[in-house]
Design goal:
Blueprint lengths: L12 H9 L7 H36 L5 H17 L6
C-alpha cells in the first residue's frame, strides 16, 4: 500500500520549538506528528464506540423498562475505588 501525505499544518514558532524540545533520540518531527495523529484517530474511534454503546444501552433500557438506579451504580463504583486504593494484598 502506498503512503499518503497529511497536509502541512501551520503552527506558532513556540509550539514547534516545544515539540522539537520533546523529541526522543532518533525521533523526527514528522514521526512525532504522525504518532499524534494516529493516537487521536484511535481515541476518536474509541470515543465514538463508547457513545454508540451508551446510546444502545439507553435504547435497550427504554424498551425493557429495566433501569439500574444511579445510587446503586455509584455505590458499586465507590467500592471498586476503595478496593483499588487499598492496593493488592501481599503475603508477609
Amino acid at each position: 500500500m502506498k503512503t499518503a501525505a497529511i497536509p502541512a499544518v501551520r503552527v506558532s514558532p513556540e509550539l514547534r520549538q516545544a515539540a522539537e524540545a520533546l523529541l526522543e533520540t532518533g525521533e523526527t518531527l514528522s514521526g512525532f506528528v504522525e504518532d499524534a495523529v494516529r493516537r487521536n484517530v484511535e481515541f476518536r474511534y474509541a470515543q465514538k464506540a463508547f457513545i454508540e454503546r451508551g446510546l444502545a444501552s439507553g435504547a435497550s433500557a427504554g424498551k425493557s423498562g429495566k433501569y439500574i438506579p444511579a445510587a446503586a451504580v455509584l455505590g458499586k463504583l465507590a467500592r471498586r475505588l476503595d478496593k483499588a486504593r487499598k492496593g493488592p494484598k501481599t503475603a508477609a
